[in-house]
Specification:
Layout (H helix, E strand, L loop, with lengths): L9 H17 L7 H9 L2 H16 L4 E5 L2 E5 L3 H9 L5 E2 L3 H7 L12 H15 L9 H16 L7 H16 L8 H14 L10 H13 L21 H26 L4 H11 L7 H6 L1 H13 L5 E6 L3 E2 L5 E2 L4 E5 H6 L13 H4 L22 H18 L3 E4 L18 E3 L1
Parallel strand pairs: 2-7
Antiparallel strand pairs: 1-2, 3-4, 4-7, 5-6, 8-9
Helix pairs in contact: 1-3, 7-8, 7-17, 8-11, 10-11, 11-14, 12-17, 14-17
The structure holds protoporphyrin IX containing FE (HEM).
The site of protoporphyrin IX containing FE has 25 residues, from helix 6, helix 11 and helix 17.
Length: 438
């Protein structure tokens, strides 16, 4: 007989909305607001969110259960088998364009792959995978990319003071423009600024392109029309495309994911390494005296990759995934949920689940080298399944070259930031409050 999923109470729904739903919106869905992120980082907001979901899961799990978010009930999924069903079934029957995400992204990337469905999603996905070399051991242009990442690291090492997130971010925005658009875009900072403004507009969820979108699109089209053979634009002509692909529209996501998201994760890796002297020692010895512009060397620095992946697991940049069912779904217990059902995945809880992850609150890079972390669908900072991040391999490669170069040349020390206890790392690590001396 089909069983209904359990329902969290109304009061629990109010708390879930306040502690999980609202903080995600207050911080800015797309462009994190510095002041608010710092304030939220100081408050135990993520800790409260973790504890709340942990308590709910104990009471109503391990099957999916209903919890109220605002005025609607959503299905919260926590068990690895159910995560596999949802992420393995994205974008259909579980579309990744719930209302808030679609309305926000419409401001700066209305044709983005991540909010596409059906044939359009398949076309745009094929295009992205072809240019990004998704799933290949290394990207075709990896040699040049590594050299640019090393140059970005070297630039930071010339600063005669501790480095901040703004420094890392500025270096990465430049690197990103070179990698995605080509050498001619290196100093095109106004393009990055324009995208930043549009992303800020996205936080208000306007549901339509914000002022300036057409200009951004046109400027990107110019780079596409004059491709650089050493950049991703140089691979566009050889990639499958249809009338609906909208190449500039796809590049926008790549620019912000590489320019904003990746450096945020690298800053956290840089902040946590100095408090783990043994780990730092192993990572440094992996690249000591090595040439980080050599593709094999970069790709072979698996322990450094583990350090980056661990920073991403501990402090995922997307702490909550939303999905919406495009059709009825029958679950393993026989329960059927109708089209339109909202499904939520709380990454922070799954990544830190103390009942299921033995290294939940520790920094454990070795789990990605010789443990089972890489195949674990609970860890979704890059997501999993058909809609998993097609830029994951390229991101980690750039991160390896950048971080590898920094720690091969310098021993990072924390000049400002929270006191991190290695045996119990906090649920939030505010990148704006961290300074690292190289
Ligand atoms: C550390 C950096 C990055 C992180 C943490 C990250 C994370 C993610 C996550 C979690 C998703 C799935 C979102 C969802 O389903 O709700 C995703 C999708 C995506 N990512 Fe990344 N990403 C990163 C870098 C990149 C880069 C550098 C690129 C491109 C060059 C990229 C391109 C994409 C695209 C196109 C999608 C949509 C895939 C689809 O819907 O089929 N990402 N990424």
């Amino acid at each position: 007989m089909a069983l209904d999923f359990k329902h969290a109470s109304l009061v629990e729904g109010v708390r879930f909305t306040a502690q999980v739903g609202v903080p995600n919106i207050v911080q800015g869905l797309f462009r994190k607001r510095e002041v608010v992120v710092s304030a939220v980082g100081r408050l135990p907001a993520d800790h409260l969110a973790y504890r709340l979901v942990e308590g709910l899961e104990k009471k109503y799990g391990p099957d999916p259960f209903w919890v109220r978010v605002g005025s609607e009930e959503a299905l919260l999924v926590t068990h690895p088998d159910d995560l596999r069903v949802v992420l393995g079934g994205s974008p259909s029957p579980f579309a990744s364009d719930p209302d808030a995400k679609r309305k926000g992204m419409a401001a700066f990337q209305p044709t983005a792959l991540t909010i596409s469905r059906g044939d359009l999603w398949a076309d745009r996905r094929a295009f992205a995978e072809a240019v990004l070399d998704t799933g290949a051991p290394t990207h075709r242009l990896a040699g040049g990319f590594a050299a640019h990442a090393v140059a970005a690291a070297d630039g930071l090492m010339t600063l005669d003071r501790p480095i901040t997130f703004d420094d890392v971010n500025t270096a990465f925005q430049r690197l990103t423009r070179i990698v995605v658009l080509g050498a001619d875009a290196a100093e095109d900072t106004s393009l990055t600024d324009l995208l930043g403004d549009l992303m800020s507009a996205g936080n208000k969820m306007p549901g339509k392109p914000a002022d300036g979108y057409e200009e951004l699109h046109a400027r990107l089209q110019e780079y596409v029309d004059d491709p650089d053979p050493g950049a991703l634009t140089g691979l566009v002509a050889g990639a499958p495309q249809s009338a609906g692909t909208d190449v500039p529209g796809q590049l926008i996501h790549w620019l912000f994911a590489m320019g904003d998201t990746l450096p945020a994760n690298l800053m956290r890796a840089l902040a946590v390494l100095p408090t783990h002297s043994k780990v730092l020692g192993v990572a440094r010895s992996e690249v000591a005296g090595k040439d980080l512009t050599d593709v094999e060397t970069v790709a072979g620095s698996t322990y450094i990759a583990g350090c980056i992946l661990e920073a991403m697991r501990l402090w995922p940049t997307t702490s909550l995934f939303g999905r919406v069912q495009v059709e009825d779904v029958r679950w393993a217990n026989g329960q059927k949920t109708p089209a339109g059902t909202q499904v939520l995945i709380h990454n922070l809880f799954n990544h830190r689940n103390r009942a299921r992850v033995p290294f939940a609150d520790r920094f454990a890079p070795e789990e990605w080298v010789s443990g089972g972390a890489a195949d674990d669908w609970r860890f979704n900072f890059f997501s999993h399944g058909p809609q998993g991040c097609p830029g994951a391999g390229l991101s980690i490669f750039l991160g390896q070259a950048f971080l590898g170069r920094l720690i091969s040349r310098a021993e990072p020390r924390l000049a400002a930031g929270p006191r991190l206890r290695p045996e119990r790392l906090p649920y939030a690590l505010d990148i704006y409050g961290v300074e690292v001396r190289l």
